[in-house]
Amino acid sequence: MKLAFSTHKIKLIYIIFIAYYFSLFMEDLAISNTILISGIRYFAYFLLVLSIGKRAVSRKKLINFTVTLLISALISIVTRDIYYGVILVLILASNNIDDKRVMEYSYKVLCVLTLITIALSLVGIIPLVVTNRILGNTGTRYGMGFYHSNVLPAIIFYLYSYRVMIEQEKIRIGEVAAWTALSILIYKLCLSRNALFCCVLLTLFVLCSKSKRVKEKKPSKILYRSSFAIIIILPILLLITMIFQGNNILLLYNINKSLSGRLAIAYHQYEITGLKLINFMSKDSYQAVARIIDSGYLYVALRYGLLFLIFYVVIQYKYVKKYQFTRLALCVILIVVLENAIDNDLFSYGFLPYILIAFSKSKSLCKTSDMSVDAVFKKKQRTIFQNA
Question: What is the DSSP string of 87-109?
């Protein structure tokens, strides 16, 4: 688990990314810090506009920037929320970022911020926060400086996923064991089953990928096609199970029970707001009738509309298409999708790097062998097209 910071010059876009990442992290703390969050975020916005302004020297780039800015403004007006507008502009500004460096910065920044938060909570500067599950008495859950006890386990999962993305099959067994042990320890403190399940599943994928039999094989198209199918089918299945929650179907009842009532809560929200292509409700209007929806995909569909759910499917599709020959990168995104089907991290700092690398031109997380397989595959495609 390396944490050394290099002394190379950091590009402006990475400073913007780190500032915005930090502002999102601050929202999860168990203390009120609205002024600080706003200050950091507006600083990031200013640098973001400055960054694109410096790059928009050609007429084509200037047009792209202007169109993106107008679309972002329109989306912000429609949703009464600037998040998606900012993300669109950030995607445009980040198309030349290095994927591996984004993951490295994400890992280092999140690791440092998490350690500081835990330390401050242990000495009493930040509230420790103690909660219990709504359904059933499963013991005391500690927030460790975060507003809820499920935040720290999710952070551990994302830190682990960043390390796997950075190292790929080179990640050592000792580090894999350390992350697994840490996730179990955090589970004992916070009692968040979903994050523990995701960490254990990621460990199984890593161990399988590191085995000699699997390592010697080329990345399979089956994994790529399965990944593509899951990122489309899973959100649809979630919507179907939510919509039919009120039909007294035993199977759906058992699924909802295993998910701690998440689908039933989403169904009651669906009864109030409905399911629309675009939800034009303001933030205040929605919050007046809002229930806490843990599933990220269901929250997006109910709060913003189905078009915005499609946006996340596009993100995941582009990621899968880009890293279709990198076995562990596909495994990571599958688990991230599963994690967000149960919890809601689609708007969090943890998921932010995956959004940016999905749209960037870089493929620095690919191994050399993966790149050669990609080149061979594309050559075959061209040959088939020419012979057709």
Answer: HHHHHHHTTT--HHHHHHHHHHH
